[in-house]
Amino acid sequence: MGKLSFASIGCAYSSESGKSFTCEYYFEPTGLYYTIIIMPTSEENVVDAFFIDITDIHNFQTHLKAMNHKLAMALEAADLLPWRYNLAEGKIIYESKVHPGDNIETAEVHTHEVSLKEYFSKIHPSFRACVEKAFDDLCNGKIKKVRKEYCLERLIPGEDRHEWEEIQVMAEYDASGKPKALIGSTISITERKQLEHDLRMARDKAEESNKLKSAFLANMSHEIRTPLNAIVGFSNILASTDDLEDKKEFADIIENNNSLLLQLINDILDLSKIEAGTLEFTYDYVDINAVLRDLEQSAHLKNKNPDVQISFKDYLEPCVIYTDRNRLSQLMINLLNNAMKFTQAGSILFGYKLKDDNTLWFYVEDTGCGIPENKRKDIFGRFVKLNTFAQGTGLGLSICEMIVTQMKGTIGVDSVEGKGSRFWFTLPFQPKKELLPSEEQKPVTLEKIARSEVTILIAEDNSSNYRLFESILKPEYKLIHAWNGKEAVELFYQHKPQLILMDIKMPVMDGYEATAEIRKVSASVPIIAVTAYAFAQDEQRIINSGFDAYTAKPINGKILKDKISTLLTHRIILM
To answer: What DSSP letter does each residue of 395-444 carry, written as one string?
Structure first.
């Protein structure tokens, strides 16, 4: 090995002490580890030195330390705490965890002891008895291994939920085959339990959605087939009967079911848009009184019951607020339609009041049949119908609730069975700060003309649609047909019609472009847009593009004639 000195091997030994000395030494040239034992002799300044090769032992100990460190890291990563319960001492013994960042050479491992009673005290009472029994069965040799999950008494810091743990325990036996200790591990399963809870909720929601989808399809099949049955059936009979009274009755039935089917389709579209988050809301400053007065006139036309009086009662003057005109109209129309459906005599009153500085309170009050108390909480649910024999889909109030919520309002109902109901909703009150003064109305000289001489220009590129307009209007007006927007402009210059029906989508030149050209020479001729618009911004564009009004497809003959008559009375005197 060569010549060695005590200094070279790091030994501070003095022969005068007369004692033996032991140390470890690493000999770098050979890469070997030694245990050096130095012992004094009887000769002065002479010692005996013994070198024992411990390289294998040293490597094994290093490997063992590395394995222990990996095990400690694995236990920490799994949040697993091993422990041992000595039956004779009645103590659970466990070691503090070694964290992955700790140095394996310097990390301190502390041993802890807790009594079984102290261990059980942290378990939630609803699980404690079950865990205690499992321990008793293990200690008495009834079972060899057990796995239990339990909730802890304490809450997670900052949260309103409990921590969870799982234990796996097995018995250790003595030479006689009797349990002498329990060896176990404890692992935190709080996150797993939360994940299980979330998965259960997602599963329940998916199952509920599947049930709702099946119920929705079943309801839709019934609701669609019911008016279709009347439309198809009476259309066939209408063609084969010669009795005029029967024809009128059948035509009325077909028209009513057409309206019902159209309302159903609109409700389904609105419902799907709301759920998909794509329902359009177009906000602008709206004259609430003008909107509700228009609805009052429409309700009077729709009301077929002379025993029911409809009136727009409470309002503010003036009232221009920042809201969505279409959705406000939709809300009031749905509530008015419901009131008319369930009111056989008396009155239907509607209006609005200022609830506070930031809220408007709208209402529709009727003297109808009222709502039973046990059904009021479900009244805004989907497909909920108080009278299964009454026309309707049971979607209107559900859609109203979703629209009001989207508009940051609330909705509710007050009702007394047999006396009537009052549906109400609130909307944010954002008034226009400065109302523009009304422009001075210039005197207009109204032209006198016979109704039979009133000329209407119809711009429509579809022959079937024009045939429908012709069948509705030809008995009362002179009609001119343009196949596209460009031809409509040319025919306007030639014939100077008293009113124009303008389809929006046409070849060569669309309705917007044609209207813009006509407005260059005439700001007074009434132009009604004919559109199948699906979104709120389309309607807003129509209003802002020089049109006086619009009618949506499919065309309702009565509504169309009412609009034409209203616009004409402001421009001409019919003889």
So the answer is: -HHHHHHHHHHHTT--EEEEEETTTEEEEEEEEE--B-SSPPPPPPPPP-
